[in-house]
Amino acid sequence: MRKNIITILLAVIASSIFVSCHTSSGTLSEGDNPKKREFRGAWIQCVNGQFQGMGTAEMQRNLTHQLNTLKAQGANAIIFQVRPECDALYKSDIEPWSKFLTGRQGEAPTPYWDPLQWMITECHKRNMELHAWINPYRALTKGTKDLAPNHIVMLHPEYCFKYDGLTLLNPAYKECRDYICKVVADIVGRYDVDGLHIDDYFYPYPVAGQQLPDLEQYEYYRTRAQGTPLTLGDWRRRNVNVFIEQLSKTIKQTKPWVKFGVSPFGIYRNKKNDSRGSNTNGTQNYDDLYADCLLWDEKGWVDYTVPQLYWQIGHKSADYETLINWWNEHFTNRPLYIGEDIERTVGNKDLVNPTQDQMAAKYALHEKLSNVKGTVLWYSRVAVDNLGNYGSRLQGKYWNTPVLQPKMDFIDGKAPDCVSKLKQVKVKGDQMLFWTAPKGKDWKDAAVKYLVYRFEANEKPNLGDASKIVAITSNCYYKLPVVEKTGKKQQVIYCVTALDRLQNESDGVKIKVKM
Question: H helices within 209-274, ranges in order?
Fold first, then answer.
């Protein structure tokens, strides 16, 4: 029935319409405008207890407000924490409901809902990506005492060790790697997530006077190693490397289009320890967390990296400008996004102009560094509350036009076919554009979204100009804006392109419209 109605509507064609299709190498070329594609994300965390025991309706209202505000500010991706301590903010047959949702581990929310599914639906309605964020190794935070019977610590305490009040899965054990990958395969397989995201916790952050309780496992490895055994540090790094590679393969085998992202601590290595390192003096991924994130980028095990550059420009031990330049220089194989701390950005004065904060200076660095493809805000609530007018400035300047996600040709670089039958139709007094989706055999070919551009009649259409984008939509129609009557017909050009799951963009189809 619906198809018949649309067919009838499409037959009613407004006058003076011209439709054509141009390849992306012609007049409708995308160009090299970096602002045409940018990851604009925000972390929404639960481990701080902001939702704990809040209740279904209130939490949904809270998240709706955050999503609406972030969307208005220009965000196009949400990284939502769904597994803070081997638990779940989603329906799982493997792990218990999180205490950070209901206040008690193992207790389902009342009235019942699935926060992950709800967030996917709400984000996709707003044309935002949803990346499910898990902490892979942390089994218990310091405040968790009451455990559900099906929690991993109850089922397999031998998989875990304690350190500084935390309980963690031991990265040395294959059983732990397999368990985490089982959980991830379940999430990716059952939910339409756009990405799977892990944070900076691998081996725990070192605490003075405390030693990691894994020497027994290392000795077991060392006495059975063929050839020269790895050092303790190299052995720990190998444990994490094997896990990262396995996790990457698990995601791609489950759904090849789902992006795998990692957000490491902001310092890889200090130059005093490695000539490739940054001119900094702080905790190191490689030496202290045993996370060789540079190797993961070089090997292509991750699809994007988000270093947490939470310091200010001019910080004595970890200068922001030094670090963003270092990451831009060394992380070149996969898209690089920058983790930004809003509170420290607006709380520190610009070194050149002390009357303003450091937001402008930081975003100027983003603009000039070719390998920086986006930003992730720490954290969402601060942006939503508009601390220091940070959110207002995103909306008014830095994120003020719609953009696509960065290209990931290493997953899929082929664009879908262009739309067809683009027509202008008057429906109940409204001027509409309708089009037909291109045919697609599988996820690499199928169109899932569309871009609508608007150009003046005397303009040469240029798909590289992001300021001309008026809509990113999942619908095969677009309502034209009402034009103030001036006594004569106004002519403009609209262009529609198709996007696949990885936001590869098709050739453009344009139409001249008289309003």
Answer: 215-224, 232-254
- Give the pLDDT score at 34: 46
Torsion of CA 348, 350, 356, 358, to 10 degrees: -60
Angle at CA of residue 445, ends 440 and 449, nearest 5°:
90
- Joined tokens for residue 507: 């050739």
Neighbour count for residue 194 (Cβ, 10 Å): 23
Beta-ladder partners of 41? 77, 376
pLDDT at 482: 84
- CA Rg, the chain, in Å? 25
Q: Rounded mean pLDDT of the chain?
A: 92
Q: Six-digit token pair at 111?
A: 């009235």
Q: Which backbone phi and psi does 397 adopt, to 5 degrees?
A: -140, -60
Q: In what order do the strands lie in the sheet with 508-514?
A: 18-22, 508-514, 491-499, 449-456, 469-473
The string of pLDDT tens digits covering residues 343-398 is 999 999 999 999 999 999 999 999 999 999 999 999 999 999 999 999 999 999 99
**CA 310 centroid distance within chain:** 18
CA atoms within 13 A on the CB side of 481: 10
Beta carbons within 8 Å of 502's beta carbon, 6+ residues apart: 257, 405, 407, 408, 411, 412, 413
The answer to whether 264 touches 290, Cβ cutoff 8 Å, is no
